Amino acid sequence: MSEGQLTRSGVDRAAILLLALGEQHAAQVLRHLGARDVQRVGAAMAQLSSVSREEVSTVLSTFSNTVEQQTSFGIGTDDYIRKVLNEALGADKAGGVIDRILRGRSSRGLEALKWMEPKAVGEMLRNEHPQIISIVLSYLEAEQAAAVLVQLPELTRGDILMRIAALEGVHPTALNELDEVLEKQFCGTGAGTTDGGFGGPKAAAEILNLVGTAQEGTIMAQIAKVDEPLSQKLQELMFVFEDLTEVDDRGMQELLREVPADKLIVALKAADETLKQKFFKNMSERAGQMMKDDLESKGPVRLSEVEAAQKEIVMTAKRMADEGRLALGGKGGEEYV
Questions:
Q1: Second label for 262, Cα 20 to 30 Å away, from 67, 154, 183, 238?
Q2: Which positions ≥6 away from 268 have C-beta within 8 Å?
Q3: Cβ–Cβ < 8 Å for 132, 164
Q4: What is the distance of C-alpha 67 from the center of its chain?
Q5: HEC sequence for 24-71
Q6: Domains and CATH numbers, the chain
Q7: What is the pLDDT of residues 205-250, one digit of tens each?
Q8: Number of Cβ atoms within 10 Å of the Cβ of 292
């Protein structure tokens, strides 16, 4: 396996494969992916650069070997789907897709929300009961759920997050009824079933991780007034940019290979000195000095741009943690023994 193949993420390898397949075949594959996965793979395809012939050949060869080894020759279809999707998307991202394919969890009404802009989803949910909103946000991926949450009235956000944290599953009948209501709004047909596969404190923390810093503080204050233990639990599960100080040096070096320098410069504009030094010491002396010079010479940057850059780097770190390439310390990190 080439060095490029070793450093590419699962999403990047999927993008290389689709580009190699050509427009028509790639389109056929994308039709079978969920909205957020299409966006991720599409973004990876747009950002790919410096892909060598050897790397393309390695990706195609790996995929070909996977197909030959995991189809009908002694291996069940379910195992094949799991292994191919895990290889293409990574275990964490593939989990939701696998659930919907193998456990009959495709709900067309709810699924349609994944293709909508957060503002439109927020307008649709604005007058719904908080429990309904919490179920819908739990069904969406954390990034989209966070964007929808900030479209809702500020006073309701804490209540909604608490309900998400308390969710331990939804009865299939109740979810079918919700799905049918949404389906009618989209003029669709049919409905699926979903059991207790989403919600909980971890889901709530993931959403909180992705809302703006100001909104996060307000929501956490609302939750703390009502349920202090839950507030502490969510704090423990969350992982923010400042927690990267707890990543070990090897993991930080891996992260630096994935993060564009211009993005890191913006993210570090509002970072404390300890975190800056953590990044600098894991660069070469020349690269570290160049980064320091660039930081000093860069003019004012909007806080919203800094926060967006920091969140993007945190998402990259989480993806790498899911792939086993680094261990996240601080809040949200697993214990190692």
A1: 238
A2: 275, 276, 279, 291, 295
A3: no
A4: 27
A5: HHHHHHHCCCCHHHHHHHHHHHHHCCCCCHHHHHHHHHHHHHHHHHHC
A6: 3-102 (no CATH), 108-237 (1.10.220.30), 241-322 (1.10.220.30)
A7: 878 877 766 777 888 888 888 888 888 888 777 777 888 888 889 9
A8: 14
H or E element in which residue 257 lies: helix 249-258
Tell me which amino acid residue 331 is.
K
pTM for this entry:
0.43
Residue 138: which of 159, 99, 168 has the closest Cα? 168
pLDDT tens column, 286-316: 998 999 998 888 888 888 888 888 888 988 8
Longest dimension (CA), the chain: 61
The DSSP secondary structure of 293-316, one letter per residue, reads HHHHH-----HHHHHHHHHHHHHH
Residues 111-138 have a mean pLDDT of 83
